């Protein structure tokens, strides 16, 4: 084939990637929101790896295999399959549980729910930005009660302006993430050789050699996980069939007396996919996760023993975590100072060892993109009425946490990173006191609560992992920046459309609701700030310092002792008093640590690699069987059991 023909074929397949991604992203976003917005379904985007996206890749690989057999010239390469997968992940993340799913209700909740009891119309509604919200009750009636077509000109006109402006804001948010990834990618992936273990499964699924699917041990793990999932589904539909208990069961119910009843929850669970993901994690980090989970439980018991549990929010776990993240970020910047110096030289054109030819963007373009994205964020925030100093501090905190989470994913393959109530909207009012912050600043932080309440469905790690997969399979990352930004735009628009379509059809608060709790938690918090103003809280401030010092101690010990097993980031992830995140995964991770440690100790890394297909099979078996059962239930109108992650 001539060079001209090869170039034409690459352009044709590049167009195919765009078309396929444009179709698959809205379908996945709809699937994710339909799953997570109803109260009895699964939560894909709370995990670091989305089972919806993995299943989509599996189906795409299957179709591509047939195309390769029948019409080889139209088959996609592995790099193109993985680019589509990355785009689906980014789009799904933006439609996920901690992104636009929380934004849409926050755009209208306080106006529809205002009444003489909550006094929203007096407390803050007059100060809410009209251009970023929908306030017309006639427009909102169909949204909350359902039974109305959203495809009417007056409804679309009311939502179009706020959606367009929020889309611009999110594009700015994601642009900064992408540019930061470009600036740090070389150091993390090329020089430190971070493996990004979460890319291993999609890379193996899409391999043209299909070696994973030819491995008997893979089918052993796949069959076991899928069989249990199908069996339990049958047991749900036919109660006479006994259930194989995999879902969490609280072992702490037997603790009736103080101080042990302070534990509250100690679930046992046996999720196959979590055991499989744990097998991919470094052993020391895996050990640290379950150890620090029990460490947090011990804090609760000790607090109850000394009467400290009467103090509100004690032991301030989210503030301890915040301090640990900040110290880890500062320490990381200090260690990377030589690289940052070289990066600065490359940007200003001075002699430097760094070259940006392999990067998705040049370093100068990344700096320009970062500046433009931040200008959008600052402009938007100033339009809301926030003070400039608070805006700067707010987004510094946000991106420090985002970079830390991206680093955790790249280095440790953490299965979940909720970081509940550790964002700027929680930390800043506590540090400075709601009494001393203007109402506009409080409104701004409440309006932004949707993307920094927790950090589960975060797009930034998927960008870096996407670059890693393109580097492994294509040998180049050119074009990935445009692909990722295109995926973000499609994902944003798909998420807004899905919410409007579902809410106007079913009713946001009718028939059990559609995940509107992003509205009440935002405005209950804002009401508390406005009606019960507080000064700076000493306890959380001390906890921030204590968490930072403890994390610094752990990090220093890791640098001084080669086999030091305690990692500061595991200390933050394993905080257990907020939500059900690590609560539901600590035991599978503990089991994975036991299995992996035994295999490496008695069989070495050769046996570890030999057994790896079993654990990849556990992940893919549960993901594939659960996804097919879920889609089948949608199609047939069957009742669906609650499943916190996999349906």
Explain what this protein looks like in three dimensions:
- The chain has 647 residues and is mostly helical.
- The chain has one domain.
- Helix content is 67%, strand content 1%.
- It has helices at residues 3-37, 51-70, 78-94, 100-106, 109-112, 120-123, 137-145, 153-191, 200-206, 216-237, 272-280, 283-305, 317-335, 337-348, 363-384, 388-412, 424-432, 439-447, 449-452, 459-473, 480-506, 518-531, 538-560, 568-573, 586-636; strands spanning 249-250, 267-268.
- A two-stranded antiparallel ribbon has the order 1-2.
- The chain is globular, with a radius of gyration of 25 Å.
- The protein starts with a helix and ends in an 11-residue tail after the last helix.
- The mean pLDDT is 90.
Number of strands: 2
Strands in their spatial order, largest beta sheet: 1-2
Helical coverage, percent range:
55-70%
Broad structural category: mainly alpha
* Beta-strand residue percentage: under 5%
Q: What is the typical, i.e. mean, pLDDT? A: 90
- Which ranges are low-confidence, i.e. pLDDT below 50, for 5 or more consecutive residues? none
* N-to-C series of helices and strands: HHHHHHHHHHEEHHHHHHHHHHHHHHH
**Quaternary assembly:** single chain
Number of domains: 1
Please, how many helices?
Answer: 25
Distance between the termini: 47 Å
- Major sheet description: 2 strands, antiparallel
Tell me, briefly, the overall form.
globular
């Amino acid at each position: 084939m001539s060079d001209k023909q090869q170039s034409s074929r690459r352009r044709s397949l590049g167009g195919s990637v765009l078309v396929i991604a444009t179709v698959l992203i809205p379908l996945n976003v709809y699937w994710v929101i339909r799953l997570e917005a109803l109260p009895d379904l699964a939560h894909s985007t709370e995990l670091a790896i989305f089972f919806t996206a993995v299943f989509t890749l599996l189906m795409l690989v299957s179709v591509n295999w047939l195309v390769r057999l029948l019409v080889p010239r139209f088959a996609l390469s592995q790099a193109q399959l993985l680019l589509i997968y990355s785009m689906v992940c980014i789009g799904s993340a933006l439609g996920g549980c901690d992104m636009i799913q929380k934004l849409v209700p926050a755009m209208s909740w306080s106006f529809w729910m205002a009444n003489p009891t909550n006094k929203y119309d007096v407390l803050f509604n007059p100060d809410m930005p009209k251009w970023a919200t929908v306030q017309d009750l006639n427009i909102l009636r169909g949204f909350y009660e359902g039974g109305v077509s959203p495809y009417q000109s007056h409804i679309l006109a009311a939502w179009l302006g706020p959606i367009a402006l929020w889309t611009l804001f999110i594009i700015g948010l994601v642009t900064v993430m992408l540019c930061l990834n470009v600036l740090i990618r070389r150091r993390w992936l090329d020089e430190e050789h971070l493996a990004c273990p979460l890319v291993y499964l999609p890379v193996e699924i899409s391999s043209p050699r299909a070696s994973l699917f030819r491995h008997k041990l893979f089918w052993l793990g796949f069959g076991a996980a899928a069989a249990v999932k199908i069996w339990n589904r049958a047991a749900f539909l036919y109660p006479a069939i006994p259930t194989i208990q995999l879902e969490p069961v609280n072992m702490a119910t037997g603790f009736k007396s103080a101080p042990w009843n302070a534990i509250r929850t100690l679930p046992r669970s046996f999720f196959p996919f979590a055991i499989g993901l744990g097998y991919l994690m470094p052993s020391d980090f895996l050990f640290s996760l379950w150890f620090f989970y029990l460490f947090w439980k011990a804090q609760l018991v000790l607090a109850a023993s000394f009467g400290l549990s009467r103090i509100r929010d004690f032991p301030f776990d989210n503030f301890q975590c915040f301090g640990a993240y900040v110290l880890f970020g500062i320490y990381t910047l200090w260690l990377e100072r030589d690289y940052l110096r070289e990066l600065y030289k490359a940007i200003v054109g001075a002699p430097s060892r760094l070259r940006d030819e392999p990067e998705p963007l040049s370093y100068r373009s990344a700096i320009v993109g970062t500046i433009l994205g931040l200008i959008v964020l600052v402009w938007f925030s100033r339009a809301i009425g926030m003070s400039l100093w608070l805006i700067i501090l707010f987004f510094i905190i946000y991106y420090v946490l985002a970079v830390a989470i991206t680093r955790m994913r790249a280095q440790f393959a953490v299965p979940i990173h909720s970081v509940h109530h550790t964002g700027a909207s929680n930390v800043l009012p506590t540090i400075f006191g709601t009494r001393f912050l203007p109402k506009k600043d409080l409104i701004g932080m409440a309006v932004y609560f949707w993307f920094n309440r927790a950090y589960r469905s975060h797009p930034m790690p998927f960008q870096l992992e996407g670059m890693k997969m393109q580097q492994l399979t294509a040998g180049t990352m050119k074009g990935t920046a445009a692909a990722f930004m295109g995926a973000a735009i499609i994902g944003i628009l798909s998420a807004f459309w899905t919410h409007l379509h579902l809410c106007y059809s079913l009713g946001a608060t009718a028939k059990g609701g559609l995940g509107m709790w992003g509205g009440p938690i935002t405005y209950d918090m804002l009401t508390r700030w406005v009606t019960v103003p507080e000064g700076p809280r000493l306890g959380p401030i001390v906890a921030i310092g204590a968490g930072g010092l403890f994390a610094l101690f752990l990090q220093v010990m890791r640098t001084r002792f080669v086999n030091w097993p305690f990692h500061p980031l595991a200390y933050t992830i394993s905080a257990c008093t907020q939500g059900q995140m690590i609560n539901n995964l600590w035991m599978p991770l503990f089991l994975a640590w036991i299995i992996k440690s035994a295999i490496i100790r008695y069989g070495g890394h050769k046996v570890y690699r030999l057994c790896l297909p079993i654990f990849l099979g556990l992940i893919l078996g549960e993901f594939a069987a659960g996804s097919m059962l879920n889609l089948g239930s949608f199609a047939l109108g069957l009742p669906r059991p609650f499943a916190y992650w996999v349906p």
